[in-house]
Amino acid sequence: AQSVAQPEDQVNVAEGNPLTVKCTYSVSGNPYLFWYVQYPNRGLQFLLKYITGDNLVKGSYGFEAEFNKSQTSFHLKKPSALVSDSALYFCAVRGTNQAGTALIFGKGTTLSVSS
Amino acid sequence: GAGVSQSPRYKVAKRGQDVALRCDPISGHVSLFWYQQALGQGPEFLTYFQNEAQLDKSGLPSDRFFAERPEGSVSTLKIQRTQQEDSAVYLCASSLTGVGNTEAFFGQGTRLTVV
Q1: Which of A35, A78, A107, B40 is the most exposed place for a label (fewest CB within 10 A)?
Q2: Whether A101 and B56 lie within 8 Å, measured CB to CB
Q3: Using CB atoms and an 8 Å cut-off, which of residues 44-83 of chain A contact chain B?
C-alpha cells in the first residue's frame, strides 16, 4: 500500500533562513512525488513534482525538493524563507504502476515563518 | 473555466438530510477526483473518474456516499442521510490526463457541517 509520512506537525523558521519540510514515502514500484501548499480557506496549490531524472526539482515561489531513492524521501526546501511562505504543506505520492489512481497525501506540516 | 470550481462553498445540513456537492473541473480535463479533508488532516481519497467512468470508488466510506460524472465534465458527490462524522471539507480535483505523472488542480472545497 502507498503511504506518505510527514514527521513534523510544525516547522518554525525565521525569515531569511533556509527551510526544510520533511517527507518520506512508501510505494510499490517507482514513485511520482508531489508537493502542495494550502493557505487558509483555500484549495491546495501545486508546487512541484518529481517524475524522473534529476533528483533536484524546482518549483513555484522559489521552492525546490530533493528526491532520495535510498532514503525514500522527498524533502521540500527553500534557501531563504519569507513570512508569506507560512502555510500548510502536503507531500503526496502515486506509484508509477498505478497510473490514473489517486494521490495519497501526508497529514501535512504547518510552516510558520517569523519576521 | 480558469480553475476547478466547487459549490456551494459552505453547507450546513441537519443530521439525516441528503446533500449534493458540485464540482466543475477545468475544461478538457480527463481525470476528476474527490477527497475528504477532516480538520487538521490531509486529504483522504474518496473516488476517481476518468471521463464519465468511475474507475475507483474504494475510498467512499459507506453506501451513503455516491458520486457521478454522467457527461464526463461536471461531477456531483451526494451524501444521503448525513451523519455528524460526515462533517469535513470535500475537495474536488481535476487533471489533464489519466497518466500518473500529471499534477491535479484542486478547487477551494465545500465545507460541510452536519448539525
Answers
A1: B40
A2: yes
A3: 44-46, 49, 51
A and B: number of Cβ contacts within 8 A? 66
> Looking at domain B5-114, which of 3.20.20.370, 3.40.50.300, 2.10.260.10, 2.60.40.10 is its CATH number?
2.60.40.10
Residue A98 confidence (pLDDT): 56
Per residue in B74-98, pLDDT tens?
Answer: 999 999 999 999 999 999 999 998 7
Confidence of residue B1 (pLDDT cuts 50, 70, 90): low
- pLDDT, tens only, B24-46: 999 999 999 999 999 889 999 99
The per-residue DSSP string of chain A comes to: --EEE---SEEEEETTS-EEE--EEE-SSSEEEEEEEE-TTS-EEEEEEE-SS-SEEE-GGG-EEEEETTTTEEEEEESS--GGG-EEEEEEEEETTSTTS--EE---EEEEEE-
Q: Do A105 and B91 touch (CB under 8 A)?
A: no
